[in-house]
Amino acid sequence: MSLSNADVQKQIQHMMAFIEQEAQEKAEEVETKAEEEFEIEKGRLVNEQRMKIIDHFEKKEKMVEIQRKIQNSHMLQSARLRLLKAREDHIRSVTEEARQKLIEVTKNQQTYAGVLRKLIAQSLFLLLEDKVVIHCRQQDQNIIESVLQDALEDYKKATGKECKAVVDNEKRIHHDSCGGIEMTARGGKIKITNTLESRLELIIQSCLPLIRVALFGRNPNRSHDD
After folding, report:
1. Are strands 190-195 and 180-185 parallel, antiparallel or unpaired?
2. Which among 118, 133, 121 is positioned nearest to 190, based on CA atoms?
3. Which residues lie across from 166 on neighbouring strands?
4. Most exposed: 139, 140, 160, 207, by fewest CB within 10 Å?
């Protein structure tokens, strides 16, 4: 049985409606999938950028912390150096005060003569030479000559040796010295410095830990003083 034109048109219309419906559903499916993929990609990109921003600021924070530590270290080191300089300046001040007191000792002729006698004898004991030359300040020459023989006798009694000693009238100890002597032998090849400053320096160096404790207190970070 053949279909009428009206039936054919109906079937065509039905098929077109079906195709259109299928196309519409397919389009909606594609659009939904595209939106899902878009959201997934957008989320991935947002998360990726978020992690980059977090990493960037973490690095910035670390750099700031490093700079802060470096600055603190520099400030601490600078403070330590200033403290050390202040302490050394104070020790030099104490040393200079002691030096001035030594100068006062030299003003007492009797006391200073006894000191010079001991300095000469000690220098002789250190050199153990037959001939020596004594160098001193010009103002000390008379005192030294007055005690020289006694010092030589002290040396002879202790060692049993004779020694010839002369005072050099030309080569003097520097005029800024606060006193004492220098003694040479064998044409100046051997030299003993026994000035009051050198003795003071030896005392300060040997007692420096104790001086620091006396002036600044004991360092709690050190188990010993030297």
Report:
1. antiparallel
2. 133
3. 133
4. 160
Q: What is the DSSP string of 187-201?
A: TTTEEEEEEHHHHHH
β-strand pairing of 131-135 with 164-167 = parallel
Q: Give the helix ranges, DSSP H, for 107-169.
A: 109-127, 141-159
For 12-64, the pLDDT digits (tens) are 788 888 887 887 888 788 888 888 888 888 888 888 888 888 888 888 888 88
Say how far apart CA 145 and CA 127 lie, in whole Å.
19
pTM recorded for the entire structure: 0.57
Contact yes or no for 170/141 (Cβ under 8 A):
no
Cα gap 34→37, rounded to integer Å: 5
Q: What is the pLDDT of residues 140-197, one digit of tens each?
A: 999 999 999 999 999 999 999 999 999 998 888 866 678 899 999 999 899 999 998 8
